[in-house]
Design goal:
There is one protein chain. The protein is of the alpha+beta class. It has helices at 94-97, 119-127, 171-187; strands spanning 10-16, 23-28, 34-40, 48-52, 60-66, 75-80, 83-90, 100-104, 110-116, 135-140, 143-151, 156-163. It has three helices and twelve strands, in the order βββββββαββαβββα.
Length: 189
């Protein structure tokens, strides 16, 4: 895929906390328009998320699928228009203290890293029930390309994704990472 669906420099991902079963995520552009929507099914052993342009779920933007049912260092494949764009792999044991994810290309080579901002704050978050919002830095090829910043709100999981490069070909993969950070990391708190 040559061009990402996400061309703006700033997006907001929101997840309603008080949803009876599963979860729903909305992606908003800087003007507040919904530009992405997905539903997480409850009680799924193997994650399979589909991101659509809107709640009518007619046009799929990308999909995120776990490779295995239960895996502490899970890998999630991301595809757009049926073609792989890369994968995201959680760094198993290391993520107990400080969340870290590898960004993989379509050949499963490590091309980047997403890391929680600070190990000290990460430990505080784990013991204070997430009263301190998470922040993640994302690097591709050793260069910082975006930041994922959670905002404190007890009723809505809200994360801002800010891109630092205008021509990044990996934006769909990075937006999928934002969804996973809200879904997977948010669920462990």
């Amino acid at each position: 895929m040559d061009m990402s669906y996400f061309q703006e420099d700033r997006y907001t991902i929101r997840r309603k906390i008080f949803k009876l079963f599963g979860g729903a995520f909305h992606i908003y552009d800087a003007a507040g328009r919904v530009v992405g929507y997905t539903k997480m099914k409850a009680f799924k052993l193997k994650e399979d998320l589909r991101m659509y342009e809107s709640e009518d779920m007619q046009k799929e933007i990308f999909s995120i699928q776990a490779r295995h049912v239960i895996d502490f260092a899970a890998t999630y494949d991301v595809s757009a228009n049926g073609a792989p764009v890369g994968a995201l792999q959680r760094k198993g044991l290391k993520s107990i203290i400080k969340d870290e994810w590898f960004i993989l290309d379509t050949q499963n080579r490590k091309i980047g890293l997403i890391t929680e901002d600070n190990a000290g704050l990460a430990l505080v978050r784990r013991f204070l029930c997430n009263l301190v919002p998470q922040s993640f830095d994302c690097q591709l090829g050793g260069e910082k390309v975006c930041v994922f910043k959670q905002h404190f709100n007890p009723f809505v999981m809200k994360m801002t994704v800010t891109f630092h490069h205008h021509d990044d070909a990996h934006r769909d993969l990075l937006m999928a990472a934002g969804i996973l950070l809200c879904a997977i990391e948010g669920r462990q708190k």
